[in-house]
Amino acid sequence: MVKMKLVPGPASMELAMKVSSILGLKLTELEHKVFPDGESYFRYAESVKDEEVVIFQGTHPPQDKHIVQLCLLSSGAKDLGAKKVTAVIPYLAYAKQDKRFKEGEVVSIDAVLSILRQSGVDKILTVNVHAPWVIGRSPIPIENVDAIGALATHIAQMCLERPIILAPGKKGEEMCTVAANVLGAEYSTIKTKRDVNTGAVEISLEGVSVEDRDVVVIDDMISTGGTMVKSVRALRSAGARRIVVGCVHAIMVDKADEKILSSGAEAIVATDTVPNKYAFVSVAGLLAERLLRS
Question: Each residue of 44-90: pLDDT tens digit?
Fold first, then answer.
């Protein structure tokens, strides 16, 4: 019998409910309110003493608020005698600042992981962390679940003709390989170059032929959508027939989804790591499986 206390943080309550249903475990009763000045209040309404506690709390926008809430929940659980705290963080924020690009910059992900460790987090379970190379230097063990295959399985039902899978950035080939194996399709990468001062991204389809083909563009996350919009426009100009955009983490700030669709994409498919209207794929099963093995 699985023995763990599942705690639904306010950022990931729906996902926590899905995982609890799969595992056949009830959620730990948690009181939560926000004071008029914006500060969060939590109370564990049942004992967590000597228990293995699993806290579900994504760190999607508003990132800082959700991180502080996770720290409160973890620190509180340890103070109340929890034996171990695992933080299920479906989307791990600040992973884009994974190194010092310019002199004097703060390496944000290192700072966040250090704060979580000091707040009592013993292990992190996350999904498609944006900078997987930080796992090796993290002060907390991180288990990184890959949801690209699940995304591709859903997209495979969309009756694509002569599909080709594309992905931008230095992780692009790895993501493409996983998706292409599921879809039985060819794959390539979209070359990108980012200006360290402005953050602007240039893209190139050099060596990629998409004329009269259906294209699936995969990325681990979409935030402002700037890179994806440029990619979709370039693919349209190159003669792509249908363009489907897939991402694990649909942050979608400043109406990024509308910009992507208006630039020529037919559909957006995402997971439920972040609450969003394109979450046709759930990572609950993947998370439940990992929790059972831990």
Answer: 999 999 999 999 999 999 999 999 999 999 999 999 999 999 999 99
Angstrom distances, CA of residue 5 to CA of 26, 54, 158, 166: 8, 6, 39, 40
167: in domain: yes
Task: Look at residues 68, 121, 119 and name the one whose alpha carbon lies nearest to residue 93.
Answer: 68
Alpha-carbon distance of 122 to 85, in angstroms, equals 5
What is the β-pairing status of strands 84-89 and 52-56? Answer: parallel
- Is 224 flagged in the annotation as binding? yes
Query: Does 257 show up as a binding residue in the annotation?
Result: no
Tell whether 240 and 107 lie within a shared domain.
Answer: no
Is 43 labelled as part of a ligand binding site? Answer: no
Is 130 annotated as belonging to a binding site?
yes
Q: Would you say 37 is a known binding-site residue?
A: yes
Torsion of CA 83, 89, 90, 92, to 10 degrees: -150
Give residue 251's domain range: 148-272
Q: Could you give the number of structural domains in the chain?
A: 2
